[in-house]
Amino acid sequence: MPVAGSVESVTVAGLSLDVIGESAGKFPVGDFEKEGIATSGATIIKFKRKVRTIEGLEFSVTPSEAELVQAISNRKIAYNATFALVDGSIYQGPCFIETKERDSMEGKMQIDFIPSLKSAWTQINKT
After folding, report:
1. Residues near 69 by Cβ (< 8 Å), separated by ≥ 6?
2. CA–CA distances in Å: residue 29 to residues 9, 36, 50, 59, 67
3. Do 102 and 58 touch, CB atoms closer than 8 A?
4. What is the pLDDT of residue 126?
5. For the chain, which domains are there?
6. Do the Cβ atoms of 90 and 51 come closer than 8 Å?
7. Mapping DSSP to helix (H, G, I), strand (E, B) and coil, where does residue 98 land?
8. pLDDT at position 39, please?
């Protein structure tokens, strides 16, 4: 039976981040966006390579952790990130992080993970 649910843990640049329980990360699939272009004959299919960015994850952070995450985000080098999912699968890959916002009332920060390689995320264990 398939198991689905939250991301259990995330580590980036050696920093373990506390994932908000109801945070539902979006893990893209496929390498191309496709668009149909009408012609007087056969439809032209335009393939555009897409970046497999993991979006929508929220983390519980203190103000000092938020500063550290922002410092990592501002650097111009990729860092290794590891994602453990509730089904036991683990993915990793080099990436850049994009900090979206920090909610001081909730102590939350949203972070997107942009892979630096075309191959994006590698599953390091098979569930």
Report:
1. 15, 17, 59, 61, 97, 99, 109, 111
2. 20, 19, 10, 23, 31
3. no
4. 67
5. 7-123 (2.40.30.200)
6. no
7. strand
8. 94
